[in-house]
Amino acid sequence: MFGRFFTLLVMLLLIAAFMRGDFALTLIYLVVGALAVGLWWGSRALVQVQTKRRFNSHAFLGEKVRIHLTVQNKGWLPLLWLELRETLPVALVGPNSFQTVTNLSPRAEAQFEYFVDARKRGYYPIGPLSLSTGDILGLRDSLQARAGAEALVVYPRIIPFTSMDIPSLSPQGALRHRLPLFEDPTRVFGKRGYVSGDSLRRIDWKSSASAGRLQVKLFEPSIALETFVVLNLNATDYYYRTRIDSTELAIVIAASISNWIVEKKQMVGLLVNGHDPLATDSGLQPLPPRKGQRHLMRLLETLARAETTDNSALVPMLQQQRYRLAWGTTLIVITGEVRDDLLDELYQARRAGQNSVLILAGRGVPDDEVRRRAAFFGIPVVAVATERDLNIWTKRVKHP
Amino acid sequence: MNPRARSNAASNARSFRFISYSLVFLMITCFTLAIGALIQNAMPDWPASIMTGVMLLLVIDRLLTYQRFKSLPVFSPEWFVAVGTQWIVFVIFIRLLLSYAKGLSAFVEDLSLFAHGYLENFFSPEFIVTLWLAGFAWSLPAQFLELLDEIGADQAQALRETPPGVPGNAIPVHQRLVNLVFSMGIVLVILAALALVDLRATLINPAAPTLTPDRFTSVQAGVLLYFILGLALLSQSRLMSLQTRWNIQRIPIASDNLSKKWGSYSLFFLFLIVVIVSLLPTGDSLGLFSLLAALIDLLLGVLFFLWQLIIILAAFLISLPLLLLGLDPPSTMQSPLPPPVLPPASDNPPLFMLDGAIWDFIRSALLWGALILIVGFSVRNFIRQHGDLPAVLRKVPVLNWLILAWEWLRRNVDRTRVGLVRAVADGWQGIVSRLERRGAQPGTGWISLRSLDPRRKIYFFYHAMLRQSARAGLTRKSSQTPSEYAELLEKGLPTAGEDIDAITGAFVEARYSGHEVHSKQANDVKTVWGRIRRALQERSGRARAGKK
User: Fold this and answer.
1) Which residues of B touch A81 (CB under 8 A)?
2) Is the dihedral of CA B386, B390, B395, B396 positive or negative?
3) Nearest one of A14, A116, A11 to A61, comparing CA atoms
4) Do residues B532 and B477 touch, judged by C-beta distance below 8 A?
5) C-beta separation of A93 from A87 below 8 A
6) What is the Cα–Cα distance from B471 to B282, expressed in whole angstroms?
7) pLDDT at B436 (0 to 100)
8) What is the C-alpha separation between A346 and A331, in angstroms, rounded?
9) Closest chain B residue to the Cα of A98, Cα to Cα
10) Is the Cβ pair A41, B345 closer than 8 Å?
């Protein structure tokens, strides 16, 4: 285009030189003026555009997230057309990404709204938003600008457990227990007549006085359950054909267990050897055992962001973290494959006064062999091939 | 496709077709009027108005029948029949019209001559020229309409996907329309310029072409109108091409009034341009164009001299063998015509500024300024559009040397400037440090860089980077490690990413490893720090400019 424009300009200058008239000069002004104003308008107007995105940055699986997008023209030049293209994760919107065209008068704004489906756990960027506009005459290619991306965290699926048989060595907690070894003197649930051998400390003197014979208190056994969930996301530790499903199942198990423990008002911590998309060089930070909903949200966010990784051995990380845990803590290790070094580490934990439970997530694991080896070290093993297998913890059980 | 977008596009296509066809008709009318003026100027005996009228009729016919002809496969029997019959009618109609233009008696005489088989009278010069112009007028609208249909006037054609394997046109269709409008504009400008010259007088005395200012106004108006209409057409087609693209890509249009707003802004744009053009000065009081004409004259004189030289040498070479054979050399070539003499400058624009003519001076200054701006703008855009131009120019040895010399000069100037700035800064620092030493805190002086070992030099440059970065708003938090801070800094200075990594790496190595640090490493870090400092200064400069 500019080649022809140049030829025209040279022609007009020659004519102006020979004819000495206003005609050629007026034409030069007209053509160059149109070009200059047109190009300047397009480029200047785009600089004045501001965008803002508003949405709930955290969502549970299955939720619909409403995203408000505000595009504002801060300048005095109108935008003839503005093409907006939002880059959205395919996992949430499929092929239907948000894109539209609008025009903006001076100092005007446009509001847009679209939805994304929280179909899959993860940490997703919403954006960047690509803006393009151009000049009124179409003399050059569209001008492009980009607005930054923001993050959306989709929490993993949580299966509401009703009962879990997690061993604990911490007496006098908040959870009822069957073993009289863990009787809690603060939890009196009845009285009976004194029999020889009963401790004098158990005698309820007031009721003995009123009954006229010695009565002893019956205590409900209880435990304190301090748990540390260890999630193995080392890809090579899962059977390669079902690796994606198995690791997702492992994350669901970790999230559900954490939820259950927090519901029981107990402490839970988390160690994941996966990749964190937020951290460029380091992995996911371990979370020490804490109580409360806020802590649960932190756990779930960590699990939402977690991605499988290669060559990130679990055992050294576990070894490092184990020494920071309290005596009696229960380690729940969720993994796809059990190696000897892991069993050895769990055995060491047991010797140090910490309980261990192994949960095998996914298919492709010969669990009989694992059970046999784990039984040798006194470690219980639960095999969960699919989510349906978690029904064992969703059924209501009657406590004695 | 989004059904709403498609319905919008369809309704827009109808109005777009109507408006764009009207604009094309008016533009070609301007063109034909300029041709008519030229014919009247060159051949006053010919019926220029009839010839122009014929062209306009053919343009209208083409605009009306284009869709029908388009549906026929080109060079098919149906097409030949349709075009052939149409043209036979045109030929007869044109010939009869030209005969009738000379008067009723001439018309009757022509008819009798044709009836008696004198067909050579049929093909008179004005008839052949008119026929040629008619062909031109018949084909010209098609070029516009074809492009407009491709842009979106014909939605079915515009939305049709190119089958895989079929090569599409590399130039976008709107760009082709821009090229066509400008190409026709160039031709129109030439025609208008020729229409201004008294061609008869020029043919008698080619050395002194005479201007005919009385025809200037109508032709000028036509050309100006052509360009204004052309801009309107480009604006209109731009909207349609965008809408077509959005339809193809299934992008919904959120705004209901996009087309209306586009129309009103286009009118405003054209109005603004017209106002600007009418306000800008057009006089030549400083003799700018006289100067340009003199330069061209000089150039022509040089070319003419070279031509003479070549002719004389050729004549001499030819005459040598003839002289050897004792024959008379051929008569020396007639002395070539003197170079064309440009018309004397008009009385109004004097070559030099008159004393006291302040207004003339202001006008001329504005004119010069406007022209310099225009040329600068054009050259800049031309170079931008031709990104490979420097590479092409470098292939020419002389230009390559010139470019290399320019780069060398620029490098040296930059280096000298940087050196000067550094020397001044160092000097200032020296003065300040001396004052500090004399001041209340005799113990705290400036660090002498020369006295530091390479490891400490690296510390120094890294801490200098921290200090300068903090001034530029990139403060390091006490909790941040060097790597974390490098990430933050890279976000603030994306152009200096590698340098920041390099200086951070060098600092970490110097600080936390027991490796020996050589002075070369310290010098490298110094160079890297210099680049980072420039980047920080640029960032600060931009920030200040932004605040202003």
Assistant:
1) 242, 258, 262
2) positive
3) A116
4) no
5) no
6) 52
7) 64
8) 8
9) B251
10) no
Of B178, B186, B293, which is closest to A11 when you measure between CB atoms? Answer: B186
Beta bridge partners of A69: A53, A112
- Residue A156's nearest CA partner among A257, A66, A236, A227 is A257
Chain A residues 84-143 with CB within 8 Å of chain B: 99-103, 105, 110, 112, 134, 136-140
Q: Say if residues A306 and A233 touch (Cβ distance below 8 Å).
A: yes
Interface predicted TM-score (ipTM): 0.70
Q: Which of A17, A101, A280 sits opposite B296 (nearest CB)?
A: A17
Helix B125-148 and helix B173-196, axial crossing angle in degrees, nearest 10: 150
Contact assignment for A83 to B189 by CB distance below 8 Å: no
Residue holding tokens 């003399």?
Answer: A139
DSSP string, A71-86: EEE-SSS-EEEEEEEE
Q: B188 contacts in A (CB within 8 Å)?
A: none
Quote the tokens at residue B90: 């045109």
Q: How far is A359 from chain B (nearest CA, A)?
A: 37
User: d(Cα B362, Cα B365) in Å, to the nearest integer?
Assistant: 5
**Do A101 and B246 lie within an 8 Å CB cutoff?**
yes
Residue to mutate among B289, B380, B385, with most A CBs inside 10 A, is B289
Q: CA-CA distance, B376 to A35, in Å (whole number)?
A: 13
Q: Check CB contact under 8 Å for B253 and A102.
A: yes
Token digits of residue A270: 């988390």
Put simply, whether the predicted model's pTM sits higher than 0.80 gets the answer: no
> In 10 A of CB B426, how many CB atoms?
11
Give the list of residues 6+ apart from residue A19 with CB closer than 8 angstroms, or none.
B193, B196, B211
Which of B252, B232, B265 is CA-nearest to residue A105? B265
Alpha-carbon Rg for chain A, nearest whole angstrom, is: 34
Determine whether the interchain pair B292/A16 forms a contact, defined as Cβ–Cβ distance below 8 Å.
yes
User: Can you give the pLDDT at residue B542?
Assistant: 82
CA angle B18, B23, B25 (to 5 degrees): 95
DSSP alpha helix (H) spans, chain A: 2-19, 22-47, 90-93, 205-211, 243-263, 293-305, 314-322, 340-351, 367-377
| Nearest-by-Cβ selection for B251 from A36, A99, A280 | A99
Residue ranges of chain A with per-residue pLDDT less than 70: 1-4, 16-22, 166-184, 221-225, 281, 364-366, 396-400
pLDDT greater than 70 at residue B214: no
**DSSP for B397-429, written as a single string:** HHHHHHHHHHHHHHHHHHHHHHHHHHHHHHHHH
Beta bridge partners of A229: A270, A332
Tokens of B275: 């106002």
Report the alpha-carbon distance of residue B187 to residue B31 in Å, rounded.
Answer: 9
A-chain residues within 8 Å CB-CB of B266? 136
Cite the beta strand spans of B180-275 per DSSP E.
197-198, 210-211
DSSP for A231-262, please give it: E--BGGGS-GGGHHHHHHHHHHHHHHHHHHHH
Distance CA A268, CA A287 (A): 9
Mapped onto helix, strand or coil, the DSSP state of residue A269 is: strand
Q: Report the mean per-residue pLDDT for chain B.
A: 77
Looking at per-residue confidence, does B202 or B486 come out higher?
B486
Distance CA A167, CA B417 (A): 76
Q: How far is B265 from chain A (nearest CA, A)?
A: 8
- What's residue B496's pLDDT? 86
Query: What DSSP string runs through B241-264?
Result: HHHHHHHHTTPPB--TTHHHHHHH
Residues 6+ apart with CB under 8 A from B278: none
